[in-house]
Design brief:
A: Rossmann fold; Rossmann fold; 2 domains; four-stranded mixed β-sheet; B: alpha/beta; five-stranded parallel β-sheet; 7 strands; 8% strand
Amino acid sequence: MAITMAQAINQALHDAMSEDERVLVFGEDVGRLGGVFRVTDKLQENFSEDRCFDTPLAESGIIGTAIGLAMYGFRPVPEMQFDGFTYPAFEQIVSHLAKMPNRSRGTVKLPVTIRIPYGGGIGAVEHHSESPEAYWAHTAGLKVFTPGTPEDAYSMMRAAIAMDDPVIFLEPKRRYWMKSDTELPVETEPPHKAVVRREGSDVSVFCYGPMVRTAMEAAEAAADEGWSLEVVDLRSLSPLDTPTMLASVERTGRAIVVHEAAQTLGMGAEIAARIQEQAFYSLEAPVLRATGYDTPYPPAKLEEFWLPDVDRILDMVERSLSY
Amino acid sequence: MADAAIDPREFLPPDEPVHLLDPDGTYHEDPEHPVDLDDAGLRELYRLMLVTRKVDREAINLQRQGQLGVYASCMGQEAAQVGSAYALAEEDWIFPSYRELGAALVRQVDAAGLLHLYRGTWLSDHDPYKHHFGLMSIPIGTQALHATGFAMGARLDNNPIVTMTYFGDGGTSEGDPHEAMTFAGVMKSPVIFFVQNNQYAISVPLEKQTAAPTLAHKAVGYGLPGRRCDGNDVLATYAVTKKAVDRARAGEGPTFIEALTYRMEAHTTSDDPSRYRTQAELDEAATTDPIARMRNFLQQRDLYDSELEDAVEEQAKEVATYVRAGIYDAPHGDPMELFEHVYVDPTGYFEGQREQLRAELDANGEG
């Protein structure tokens, strides 16, 4: 049956709530409305207002109370309505959610999964298209997952909710309507494992979230040029699956990192550093990056010029192969 | 639609803060705020305040001797903390800031352990689930949300417990207490926001913190009753909190309490209050000392004699000595522990970094 990524996440939330009554879903408009992207559709109807509820419009409040609820023994799955609205909650996430288990020497566990629709490509108004993943991946104590397929969206969400560590779950909103023929429930690789989506021999393309599909399209186009791209879906940005990255580079000798987020100090910087530290003698070319530019996210009519696309990836492939 | 039937006057603080004890110990009965404590309970309040002060003094001494990096004294605020914390039942939870030594001692948190945060040996030492006392929280006011979330959880679980969080006059300007009270008001969470108005946020006096008539007036905006009490009057802080606890436990929702007190010491041992307040002001504040006041009251009631004095002094000394022994030259643990508690499941993390630190330790002969 064809299901969309949004439906897969909705089903994952539904199944997690069915199996464990400690799972709570809350946030802005997640109850009666079912979320602005309908990802929490019918959860309130199916599980009561106690288990899926609308909160006041206050992001720090949502995450701070999630911490209190988790301390009590619940497994909160709060939603931040959009990437650009997570910043009011930054202090609660960075100063408490990420640190409290460590401060308490593991006495306090905070199994909170924060859902954040992120990234651009939907023509949205300002503050609705951001890619803040590097902030979270830089913060010790958080795990950061982002699915690139509906199957992963389901399986990784289930795994995130079942974990005792706090998880930032980044949902690529431009892929909410991406369809896949699959039966749910489905169990894919554990979330901390990167997955090779397409094998290839010339260049490794590391990507995640919304860029997985773009990279797959680029690999298809590259094949017409006679270039064989290996597409690696990282899935987890914290931890990073270094062994899988290195194994791929050892096969191809070339690496490109693709992400929507601005280039400087984005995930690409860390990935490039790890590859040159640990696979230096396998490299035939410097690690290159196909990313967003170091500007604020552009207005909707200009996003096509800003976002990495098939052409930008292929340009980098050509550059890599020129060494 | 907001509920037009709510009369905002019921949330307004009364004109005068609740005050039951004069500085000379004279007790004024207030039928609205009964003190339901027997003689042993009254003595216990005194004992807890005195032990708090002695341990607090010991901590300042330890800092002066280089044993603590810094310390935030609660001197002068013993009645605000002890009275309020004592009004909770044992199963109720407290979510403190970093200045709540008195409340911690009510909860029998190990006093030496608390100081590890300030010594820097580790970031916290007690088990919150054993004492129903959260970790000391340094970012101002942020713990108010944890108390609210915990109370929301209790309510969902039909568990009749109450939570209480402490923050200060400065904390009322932060966003998190605002969001916490907004949530608690809407959800009718059983949480008490106990504000120790000690007149200063480091150096900034109350009049530069807010233009509100009183801090308790802020409560009206969240649909919470705003209550005020003399924070140096342990019977008032106890009775006002008890009323709020009973209200919360009965399912009637949260309460905001402003306790008027005074921070007798510096903000922390790193602070120099002579730059922003006068000796005359300090001398004036000293005349309202909460401990002397309770002693006067006990004497008037014939509940205070040399036997009690000796016993309490002896015990306070014992605790202070215990704290000194526990913290003086206390070593830090194995540096490798830095990696131990970051994640429940650390798969995929710290590759190479553990080995690097291990090698550095070995090279320095510290392994």
